[in-house]
Structure formats: C-alpha cells, structure tokens
Backbone:
C-alpha cells in the first residue's frame, strides 16, 4: 500500500540552527501539507502546497518557515533559525485531488528537538 | 471552544465493551474525519463522513454526524486492547481552498485486557 514517508524520524538540533525535514508524498497525490504537534497538544496546520506554490498557511508559518518541492517526489519543510518552541512532531500529509471529500494520508512524523 | 473538541478527554474501558467518543465543532464543514494516533506515532485515517451523510460504518467503527448540532460521534464496538490510542476528529471547512484539516484535542482511549 502506498504511504507517505518522512525522514529523519528524529532530529536534534541546536537553537539557531537551520533544519530541513523531508517528506516523500504518495506519488499520484497533488496536495501536500505540513502539520505539527507540540507534545501533549493538538495537531496544528502549518501550510498547504499545490501546483508548486503555497495555497494556504497558518499564522504559525512565519518567515522562519519555508517549503519546497525540489523535484518530482520530495517535499521539504525548512526552519531557518530554530527556537526552543519549535520542538514538536512534524507531520507531512498528502491528498489526491478527488474533490473535497478525500482523506489525507499522513507520514509517521519527524520528532524535532531543539536544545 | 475551538473547532473540533472531543469529549471525553480520556476514556478507560474493558476489552469487549463499546467505546463512544464525541466531537463538536463550530463552523460549517465539508466533511469530518476521524484519525487514530498510537503514542508518539503517525496519524492513521479511520473514516470520513461527508456533510450530507448522517451515519457511516467501517468494520467495528460507526460514525454519526449531526450538522444541526455540529457534532459527531465515533463508536468502536467490541473493543480490543490494540484499540488503545488517541482518537482525533478533524474537520474540513467549507472555507479554505486547500481543504486542510482542523484537529480537535483528542480522546485518549485505554482498553484494559
């Protein structure tokens, strides 16, 4: 069964460093998303990407964040200068554009720890 | 309260019993989805119910949707220890072009063997 894969599974970084989280969405999907989940809190939407551009973003997704689809398969989230409060589980998701009623498939997540 | 609030926050039952979790939301939706998350792991899609549907079944899962009350329930019948996980409802709003999900806070279900 096709799945969304994320690497690495766990990343530890020092405050102020740049990190890139990687995702390989399901191959025939066209909508891509990043969500995050701070420990013990709800899953929050960060950004959606369609047709090689950001389609929507939340207020969390400030200038420190960027997304890119550098080739036909990868989808990355970059955090330019990490803060302690960026520590969270980051989930990538993709969706097939079958109208409004199709589910999103999530990866296993990358646990980011900023020290 | 926020879009997508589950009730109860935590539920503990014996294996074989049924588990019912509720979700309330505030704004108009296209659909509502339920996801499951094992501790520290990814989100697994369970079931999607459209705004014009009232009930849906999938195996041991039964989901209802009442758009007049802006609420949904997830029933897991004949629960097993392996059902222990957090369960989240997530709504897709009618506004928003990207159809992103708005998640609730989740219900932590513990099924005791």
Residues:
């Amino acid at each position: 069964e096709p799945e969304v894969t994320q690497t690495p599974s766990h990343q530890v970084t020092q405050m102020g460093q740049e990190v890139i989280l990687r995702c390989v969405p399901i191959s025939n999907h066209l909508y891509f998303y990043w969500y995050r989940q701070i420990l013990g809190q709800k899953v929050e939407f960060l950004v959606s990407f369609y047709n090689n551009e950001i389609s929507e973003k939340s207020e969390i997704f400030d200038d420190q964040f960027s997304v890119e689809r550098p080739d036909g398969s990868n989808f990355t989230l970059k955090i330019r200068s990490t803060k302690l409060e960026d520590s969270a589980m980051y989930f990538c998701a993709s969706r097939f554009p079958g109208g409004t009623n199709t589910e999103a498939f999530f990866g296993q997540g990358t646990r980011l720890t900023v020290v | 309260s926020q879009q997508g609030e589950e009730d109860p926050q935590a539920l503990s039952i014996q294996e074989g019993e049924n588990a019912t979790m509720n979700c309330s939301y505030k704004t108009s939706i296209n659909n509502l989805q339920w996801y499951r998350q094992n501790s520290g792991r990814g989100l697994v899609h369970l079931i999607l119910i459209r705004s014009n549907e009232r009930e849906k079944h999938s195996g041991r899962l039964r989901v209802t949707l009442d758009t007049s009350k802006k609420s949904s329930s997830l029933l897991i019948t004949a629960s097993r220890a392996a059902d222990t996980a957090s369960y989240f409802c997530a709504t897709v709003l009618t506004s928003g072009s990207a159809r992103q999900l708005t998640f609730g806070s989740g219900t932590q279900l513990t099924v005791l063997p």
Notes: The interface with chain A takes residues 4, 30-31, 33, 35, 40-45, 48, 50, 88, 90, 92, 96-106 of chain B (CB under 8 Å). Chain B has a mean pLDDT of 91. The two ends of chain B are 34 Å apart (CA to CA).
